[in-house]
Amino acid sequence: MKKQVVKLLKPLLDLDEQQIFSVLETPPSREQGDLAFPCFQLAKHFKKSPALIAGELAGKLSAENLAAAGFSKVEAAGPYLNFFFDRQQLAEQVLASSVRDQLADYQIGANKTVVVEYSSPNIAKHFKLYHIRSTMIGQALANTYAALGYQVERMNHLGDWGTQFGKLLAAYFKWGDDEKIKADPLTELVHLYVKFHEEAEKNPELEEEGRLWFKRLEDGDEQAVRLWQWFKEESLKEFEKIYRLLGVTFDHYLGESYYGEKMEEVIEELQAKGLLEESEGALVVRLDDYNIPPCIIKKSDGASIYATRDIAAALYRYERFNPEKILYVVDQRQSLHFQQVFAVLERMGYEFAKRCHHIDFGVMKIEGEIGSTRKGKGVLLNEVLEQAIKKAEEIINQKNPTLPNKAEVAKAVGIGAIVFNDLKQHRTREVNFKWDEAFNFEGKTGPYVQYTHARICSLLRRAGDMEIKPVPHPFYEQPLVWEIIYTLYQYPSVLVETVKKDDPSQIAKYLLDLCQLFNRFYAEERIFVDDQDEQRAKLALCRKIALVLRHGLSMLTIEAPEEI
Ligand code: ARG
Questions:
Q1: Whole-prediction pTM value?
Q2: In 306-408, at which residue ranges do the beta strands (DSSP E only) sit?
Q3: Which superfamily does 113-260+304-366 belong to?
Q4: CATH assignment of 381-555?
């Protein structure tokens, strides 16, 4: 409809299409109109007050032209020119189309690629809470970019390289027990790693052994590589269990180790460009112009480091995919690291450094016992997920004990509660997970959205095989109903906003609003009425709400069971 407004106004104004398009606003309430064109910036040009211009423009738009463009009327209100949609026409258009049809006009990513790097846990360690945030924010962004036509490369930058693996190998040779590792790999490997640090405090020579083993690993020592590979395989098995549970997928598992061979090239390139300096035996790139500390490229003992691997990874992504954007969905605590990496790329002369974005987020805390830290363990994500599924099961047993596929629904609701709670507010804010709050079926929660969706599905089941069609009906013009249709119409713009801001909470908040509108409607209106046309109109509305809820939840990687 914005495009229609542009078409109507273009012949009357000395502005190009983009200038008109970009200033169009949504008036605060539907009574004031559905799209507004503010006339402020025209005042200078026409040497008239904005209100006068708005009035004149309103007079110049003929009723026929407006109707042909899908508007019922236009009104000047102060400095604004307010357009009112033809409600019958838009209702039919919105309610008769699938979400996919609706999105067809919003394929802003056609022929563009975006790399989304997310999750990226460290092997030989447990999945941490900040990894679930990275995982779910990243997956939601990847889903949304894909829905808008982008080619998305979903990338898991596993933490599978670094001096810590030298320490782990040293510990393994001293105290390792293969049977124990096989029984519970991550716990046992963490155990070895923690023991290494405890012992190293008493015996500093251990540190040297750790360094030696990492050197051997970097040099391709067969025994070291074989063990490292084993630890990695066992870790991936654990991570994949979690990904399966969460419905998360990747196109590429390219861990830090992948960039091992590319490191020398990076160092040579930095050298050739005259960017490397020696500092206390290490090689660094100074970043004084950026007012940040130098980026260390190579340590004094010759070992490669995290930042260097990230520079190699960025170059690799750029060369392989030529993406419009590279998103790094990583914890706030690493923001200096990314500033340094991007600044080094810029100093190397890469324009694409500007296309790299650190998508940061705040910490997540989980209430209760399960959140307490056991030595060397921290919060175990799979325990939290299991607990959530159990809790969902208890609720379902109370609410709907005869539900057929209870286990499946409990999984969807339990995980939905955690994921929605993670995504419902701006990602940079801290997340406090409170069990009762996140499972409140009437609160701002995943289960609330899932339950509203299931409720609509049950209405549609009741309608049986009755033909559901958006027939013209005065019903669509009622304020609340029109508000709902307008909200449904806006769904694609919410996805666009989500990728513009790289913020999935736009979708979560939208879903909550839509649920609230539906529940108000459901409380005020009877759906099954004698007037068949009215009933059809109402059911068509319900069906589209359910479709949009389902689609929106899928963007957040949350399932939408048809019955709860
Ligand atoms: N493995 C790291 C961690 O768990 C996160 C990796 C972030 N990504 C990157 N390109 N550095 O803290």
A1: 0.94
A2: 325-329, 356-359, 364-366
A3: HUPs (3.40.50.620)
A4: 1.10.730.10
